[in-house]
Amino acid sequence: MSSNMPPVAKKIPAERTHHGDTFIDEYAWLANKDDPDTTAYLEAENAFLKEQTAHLADLQEQVFQEIKGRTQETDLSVPSRKGAWWYFSRTEEGKQYAVSCRVPADSDAPPLITPGERLDLEQVVLDGNELAGDSPFFSVGTSAVSPDGTMLAFSTDYKGDERFTLRFKNLETGEVLPDEIADIFYGGAWSPDGSAFFYTRVDDAWRPYQVYRHTLGTQEDVLVYEEADERYWVGIGLTRSERYLVLAAGSKITSEVRILDSADHSGEFRVVRPRTTGVEYSVEHAGDFFYILHNENAENFELATAPLDAPAEWTPLIPHREDTRLLGIDAFADHAVVYFRRDGLTGLRVLPYPDGGQGWRERVEAAERNAYEIDFPEPLYDVGPAGNPEFTTRRLRLTYTSMVTPPSVYDYELDSHELILLKRRPVLGGYDPAEYEQFREWATAEDGTRVPISIVKRKDAATPAPTLLYGYGSYETSIDPGFSVARLSLLDRGFVFAVAHVRGGGEMGRRWYEDGKLTRKRNTFTDFVAAARHMKASGWSERIIARGGSAGGLLMGAVTNLAPEEFAGVVAEVPFVDALNTILDPSLPLTVIEWDEWGDPLHDPDVYAYMKSYTPYENVDGRTYPPVLAITSLNDTRVLYHEPAKWIARLRASAQGGPFLLKTEMGAGHGGRSGRYDAWREEAFALSWIIERGTA
């Protein structure tokens, strides 16, 4: 096929009529995954893409080698203690997947392990390479060791469709038990005695809606809970104290939690507080009381306490604040840690319980009076708790990163208030953070709202510079300032990298999210355009390439329609660009759940009209569009492959400019290819395309 002859998708008009509006969808046939014409079209698009990007092969290989060369391939994580063992994972040069390991614990400080070396008593818990074999795709959904350390529950996926098969391994003998359970969801929880494992199943719409209890060595599992409301999904966990099993049901806007004393794991769960529309809450066991994090009359959430025998009776501890979004609470035997967000940055607040014989209420109130926040020196950073499975400990494990500081693992000593650096991800090839600098800028949106932008560049890079501008802006998900090895291949070529923290995300609190969803969704898109224009007007940027994935791919499609002239290229990964058609179809995965995020266009004509005004697929017109690279996966169960396929077909048929390219991974899911070397090659491909667009 000639490079001048891109694939042309056939047009088979399909009529969609809702609320008096008729839309002709010529490419609806591409949703039929089993149609040979669909496969042929996707393969033709892949062939065209390969031809169009063949000249980038040397640059792709160069970028891949840069990523590989900066990565310490034989490495390991910082060990995390649980019971009598330290758990960690290894990566080995030449191998795609990590190996989970453990060693006996003989002190409170993690053992010093040299990458590539083995300890005498080291055990392999799970070898991803061995499990993957020759499969082109492999993923682990669950990897949970029983509280007594004797059994492992693990689940695997070999297609990318996120339907996992659950198995069990005896860690004392290495034997994999005959118990095998197909088609389960992520996660799960052990009973404290290791005799039973709780797991979830999904319905036809990919909604986790059932919780089952499997007793090892038996054939028939017990249905513990089934959620009938299609807006809710369920999950199951064991508290850090191992005292309670927690079964949570939640929609996008409402929570309902059930608890069960784990000593009687076959008993009946009891509701903490019945669901009330718009009220979200979570439960954390703190020994002789519960912490309750909730948003009842508290938009940015409030932290409360409740007695064990009356968990619905919430007494405020940390009241709501307009400037601080409370994100989570981790409870330990003699302290608690609150995870929060303020001024667009994350933070940690320690509540130390006093010594003495007070009752729990007096003790926790004293802890709040003596609470303090942990300070960090950089102007931009991201910090959070991590790897703290032990209930009784005087150390807090946390992770820290910034746009110039590689991911770092610290232990925070509660007694001395000392931060102990345990590991900073090695960046090979002479990386020096002093050669880079990070900034916070503020764009002004159409309605006057100030939109934060995080920026990183080499100190010696001239500006204005080619710029990669990233965005997401949905589900209250925050794109916090973080480090990327792959990004160095852009920065070292003189690029500026920036993140537009647009509304719909959570960077500036719950109101920031509320102002970028439902019938305020357009703020997400206009914020991003405002950020791009600010980057140019303030002298940072010349040619801007926009990038986003999943709901961020919807953002990419929307801003390409809104302001195509602002962008020299657009990379949309697994993009949600056919959002209206998807949200109109309740039989599709996750649609009903998503109505709380986007609105219900099926039953509400105003929502239908509003969504139609911004969804990318419906709004492609004959203007000149920038080059577009859309990347998808055939087995994606979250954003189906046909969304970008239809979008690219419509761009090619209706718009000027381009080129419009589609890359379909024919054997992967939402996260793309699974092996780390494969993932590096995929990133090198995208970065080589970005580099060309930025320097053309």
Automatic annotation (TrEMBL):
Is the keyword Zinc assigned to this protein? Answer: no
InterPro entries membership: AB_hydrolase_fold, Pept_S9A_N, Peptidase_S9_cat, Peptidase_S9A, Serine_Peptidase_S9A
- SUPFAM superfamilies hit by this protein: alpha/beta-Hydrolases (SSF53474), Peptidase/esterase 'gauge' domain (SSF50993)
Q: Which residues form the Peptidase S9 prolyl oligopeptidase catalytic domain?
A: 483-691
Identify the residues that the record assigns to the Peptidase S9A N-terminal domain, covering every copy. Answer: 6-424
- Gene3D superfamilies, from UniProt? alpha/beta hydrolase, Prolyl oligopeptidase, N-terminal domain
Give UniProt keywords alphabetically: Hydrolase, Protease, Serine protease
Q: Domain of life here?
A: Bacteria
Name the protein family: Belongs to the peptidase S9A family.
Q: Could you tell me which PANTHER family the record lists for this protein?
A: PROLYL ENDOPEPTIDASE-LIKE, PROTEASE FAMILY S9A OLIGOPEPTIDASE
Q: Know the name of this protein?
A: S9 family peptidase
Q: Which source organism?
A: Nonomuraea bangladeshensis
